[in-house]
C-alpha cells in the first residue's frame, strides 16, 4: 500500500501525550466456505451509482460509479448490525480478509466495496484524490445493502470503518460537514487522516461513538495526523495506540497486532450494539483489557 500525503500539522497535544438516486444491478455469486467460516455466507454484489461520474486526473472515465461489493453475512437468523468497510489505497478488501471475517463471525454483516479509483484494477488511472468521493460511496453502499438484504440488516446499528485512505473515508463519512451521513451510528478509523479537500469537520450534535487505532511507527500517517482526527469527535471515543507497528500489517498479516486489532474492534462493535449502558459497560471494560498489552498497545478513553 502506498500513500502520498504529507503530515497535516494540527493540534496534537492530547493525543501525543497519551502516547441519492441510483440504479442497481446485483450479481450474486455465493462462494464455498471453509469449515472455519461455516457461519458466514459470502457474495459479490455490483452496485452502480448513476448519479455521479468517475473522474481521474480530470478525465471522465464513466458517467457512473461502479462499486463491486464483497458481502459477508452471518447465516444465523437476523437482523444483524452492518459494517461498511473502506479499503486503503492500491489494495482491495481482500487485503483485510481476516479482519472482515472476524467481524462477520462475531455476528456483523460486512459490506466492503471496491472503490473505482483507489483499488489496483484502476491501473494507471489510480487517483488518490478520489478518496474525497468515497464517503458518499460508502453511504450509497449502505443504502443498497439495506435494499439487497432487507430485514436481515439491523438498521439501528450501522457502522462505517476503514484503513489508511479508507480511514480518511470513514472519518469523512462521520465528520466531514459536506458529506457526513446521519445514518452511521459509530465510526472506526484505522491510520486515517483529515483531508483538507473534504472541507471542514465537526462533531454532529447527536452521539457518534468513535474508535481510532494508530501506530507511532506508521510509515504514512503520523501521530500529528491522528491527533487531528482525535480532536474532532466528542465523547464517547476510544484511542488504541499501537507501539512500533507498521502501517498495514496490524490490519492484514498474521501477527500479535492483528490479534489485538480484531479483539478491540469486536469489543467496540459489541459495546455499541448493546441497547443499555449496563449491557455496554462489560464490552468497554473488555476493550480496555484487550487493548492494553505490554510492548504492543495502550488505550485512551474519553467517555
How would you explain this protein's 3D organization?
The protein has helices at about 15, 95-105, 135-150, 165-175, 225-230, 255-270, 275-290; strands spanning about 25, 40-50, 55, 60, 65-75, 80-85, 110-115, 155-165, 185-190, 210-215, 235-240, 295-300. It contains seven helices and twelve strands. It has one domain: Rossmann fold (3-Layer(aba) Sandwich), CATH 3.40.50.1820. The protein is α/β, with parallel strands linked by helices and about 300 residues long. Helices cover about 25% and strands about 25% of the residues. Helix 3 packs across helix 4.
Q: What are the SSEs and their pairings?
A:
Elements lengths: L12 H5 L5 E2 L15 E10 L4 E3 L2 E4 L2 E10 L5 E7 L10 H9 L3 E5 L20 H16 L3 E11 L1 H11 L10 E5 L19 E6 L7 H8 L6 E6 L13 H16 L5 H14 L6 E6 L1
Parallel strand pairs: 6-7, 6-8, 8-9, 9-10, 10-11
Antiparallel strand pairs: 1-2, 2-5, 3-4, 5-7, 11-12
Helix pairs in contact: 3-4, 6-7
Amino acid at each position: 500500500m502506498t500513500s502520498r500525503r504529507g503530515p497535516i500539522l494540527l493540534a496534537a497535544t492530547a493525543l501525543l501525550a497519551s502516547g441519492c438516486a441510483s440504479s442497481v444491478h446485483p450479481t450474486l455469486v455465493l462462494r464455498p466456505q471453509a469449515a472455519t467460516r461455516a457461519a458466514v455466507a459470502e457474495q459479490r454484489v455490483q452496485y452502480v451509482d448513476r448519479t455521479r461520474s468517475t473522474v481521474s486526473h480530470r478525465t471522465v472515465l464513466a458517467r457512473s460509479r461502479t462499486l463491486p461489493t464483497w458481502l459477508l453475512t452471518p447465516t444465523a437468523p437476523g437482523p444483524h448490525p452492518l459494517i461498511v468497510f473502506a479499503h486503503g489505497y492500491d489494495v482491495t478488501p481482500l487485503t483485510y480478509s481476516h479482519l472482515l471475517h472476524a467481524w462477520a463471525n462475531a455476528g456483523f454483516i460486512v459490506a466492503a466495496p471496491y472503490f473505482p479509483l483507489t483499488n489496483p484494477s484502476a491501473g494507471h488511472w489510480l487517483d488518490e484524490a478520489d478518496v474525497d468521493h468515497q464517503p458518499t460511496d460508502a453511504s450509497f453502499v449502505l443504502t443498497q445493502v439495506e435494499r439487497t438484504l432487507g430485514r436481515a440488516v439491523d438498521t439501528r446499528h450501522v457502522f462505517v470503518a476503514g484503513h489508511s485512505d479508507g480511514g480518511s473515508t470513514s472519518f469523512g463519512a462521520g465528520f466531514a460537514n459536506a458529506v457526513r451521513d446521519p445514518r452511521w451510528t459509530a465510526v472506526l478509523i484505522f491510520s486515517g487522516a483529515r483531508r483538507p479537500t473534504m472541507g471542514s469537520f465537526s462533531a454532529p450534535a447527536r452521539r457518534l461513538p468513535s474508535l481510532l487505532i494508530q501506530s507511532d511507527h506508521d510509515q504514512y500517517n503520523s501521530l500529528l495526523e491522528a491527533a487531528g482526527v482525535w480532536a474532532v469527535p466528542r465523547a464517547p471515543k476510544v484511542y488504541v495506540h499501537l507501539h512500533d507497528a507498521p502501517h498495514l500489517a496490524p490490519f492484514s498479516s498474521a501477527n500479535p497486532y492483528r490479534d489485538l486489532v480484531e479483539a478491540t474492534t469486536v469489543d467496540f462493535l459489541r459495546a455499541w450494539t448493546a441497547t443499555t449502558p449496563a449491557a455496554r459497560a462489560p464490552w468497554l471494560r473488555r476493550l480496555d483489557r484487550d487493548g492494553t498489552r505490554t510492548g504492543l498497545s495502550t488505550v485512551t478513553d474519553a467517555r
